[in-house]
# Entry
Amino acid sequence: MSAERILVVEDDAKIATLLADYLAHAGYTPRTVSDGSAVEALVRDWQPAAILLDIMLPGKDGLAICRDLRALSAVPILMVTARAEEIDRLLGLEMGADDYIVKPFSPREVVARVKAVLRRSAQPRTDTPAAQGFALEEERLAVHWRGQTTTLTAVEFQLLGCLARDPGRIWSRQQLMDHIYSDHRVVSDRTIDSHVKKLRRRLADAFPDTDLVQSVYGVGYRFELPD
# Structure
């Protein structure tokens, strides 16, 4: 395994050290930081492959960090927090997180989740339609269309790649969950809806007056390029 850099943002020194030790043992290069206000500059300078991000932090909370990082980077973000309510998980996903891990956790599970999110972000997408100049660039997690470019998170990119592979096909929530979460973890329909909502908002911001990802009431979602 390559020594990919993993940034651990955690103000509990014991938890931070535990995660760093397990990540190092798995072949990664971990780095820990406890102050939320230092994260953005560190991400810019150190360029981690993924971030394990606590919510309750001094200086700047994890939700604000996640939101602000999404304005500058598509780096995979895994929220690690004691806040277990579904609304908290959905809020984290709304801010742009790729995964959500609730304390107490197994360090081995955290490492497995990191591997999974990195694997998803590295999967190439070369089977999407090139009609009307629409293209996905796996190396940058970018979407190109109509002379504009926007970047996505790893989950958003994989979700769009799945939908765009077969324009017009209706995908159920379960099919999308099975495609995105290959480890078959149990996630709710609302998790997929949250990812789709973020994806649609990002596409609408980049390509106004279009509806590339459409809801099919009671069934699921489909991708359509306008005529």
About this structure: The chain has eight helices and eleven strands. The CA atoms of residues 50 and 76 lie 5 Å apart. Confidence is low (pLDDT under 50) at residues 124-128. The first helix runs from residue 13 to 25.
